Amino acid sequence: MAAGENKNMYLVFRIGVFGFCLPVSSLVEILDDSFLPRDPVDILSLRGAEIPVVDGRSWLESPPGDGGLGANALIVATAEANLALMVDAVDGIFPAKEFEIGDVPALLCESERVRYRLLAFWRNEPLVVFDPSELDSAVNGHG
Amino acid sequence: MGMGEKYCLIHCGDIALTIPISNVLRVEPEPQIYPLPRMRKSMRGVFRFEKEWVPVLHLEKIISNQDFRQDVCCVEIKYVLVCATELGYIGLPCDSAVRIVNADGDCIADCEAPLVPGCTQEMIYRNERYPILDIDRLLPHCP
Q1: Do A124 and B32 touch (CB under 8 A)?
Q2: ipTM for the assembly
């Protein structure tokens, strides 16, 4: 990939049955299970750095899969720090032109529980457009 | 609503309802419904309709009545009625063919025992009572 080519791209990932997309501008790194501890942890030690961990399934109240930790961790840059989000699968990184972004239906937004505001239409399915600032809320106990 | 108006009769599991056909924009056969994280309990998910995401109601979660048989809850959605509300489109699921009937004669009556939030009247068709759904009055009661 040429320098600057990734400016308008999205990472697509899964937590439970839900699909998400994240602008790659907020993505620092994708870690597979070879980098991850077997048991759930609150802090991930990575190359000398201590990174707070958010378990995507618990955070989103997603039905448990095999009961283990997610298969991948996304290191996401938020306003406050880098955070690790445990996810079940990563589909890949795709150009922004594949994503049709729109508002979450007002009838869903009425609920305080629905914190996301944008949905992407991608390959015939809805993806939640992931807002990294939500991760700060999760770590600080407001999620 | 009144005499001579056409109504859609729908069944969803053990729930039977009717809605004025003037409130129905489209009947979509077997749309793919996607769950979203942290949705309201009263929603099954969303489906794509005219470049929008339309929430689909989970009627069994809204109309909680011990008279409804849980073993016949609507598991296979054959049609979704797309209805316009003050807050946007909403989908009403049903698991059998939609029946269109005329409200003739004295088939409209006050609800004997209101089971559906926001319903005050019902249609009597072939000795079965169908609460007449007023979606805008129902939505504030949705959990």
Answers
A1: yes
A2: 0.81
**Residue that wins the pLDDT comparison between B62 and A50:** A50
Using the beta-carbon criterion (under 8 Å), do B36 and A108 form an inter-chain contact?
yes
Asked if B48's CB is within 8 angstroms of A124's CB, the reply is yes
Tell me if A1 is assigned to some domain: no
Which B residues 40-69 touch A at CB under 8 Å? 40, 43, 46, 48, 51-55
The C-alpha of B25 sits at a distance from chain A's nearest C-alpha, in angstroms, of 17
Residues whose CB falls within 8 Å of the CB of residue B46, separated by 6 or more in sequence, listed in order: A105, A108, A119, A126, B33, B34, B36, B53, B54, B55, B56
What's the sign of the alpha-carbon dihedral A111, B57, B74, B49?
Answer: negative
Helix (H) or strand (E) holding A103: strand A100-103
Please state the domain count of chain A.
Answer: 1
pLDDT in tens, A56-91: 888 887 766 554 556 899 999 988 889 999 999 999
- Summarize the confidence of residues A90-100 as an average pLDDT: 96
Instruction: Map out the domains of chain B with their CATH numbers.
Output: 6-134 (2.40.50.180)
Q: How confident is the model at residue A47 (pLDDT cuts 50, 70, 90)?
A: confident
Q: In the structure, what pLDDT confidence band is assigned to residue A141 with cuts at 50, 70 and 90?
A: low
- In terms of phi and psi (left: phi > 0; alpha: psi -120 to 50; beta: otherwise), the region of A4 is left
Domain containing residue A103? 9-139
User: Which among B39, B89, B90 has CB closest to A114?
Assistant: B39
Residue A39 lies in a domain: yes
| Single pTM value for the model | 0.82
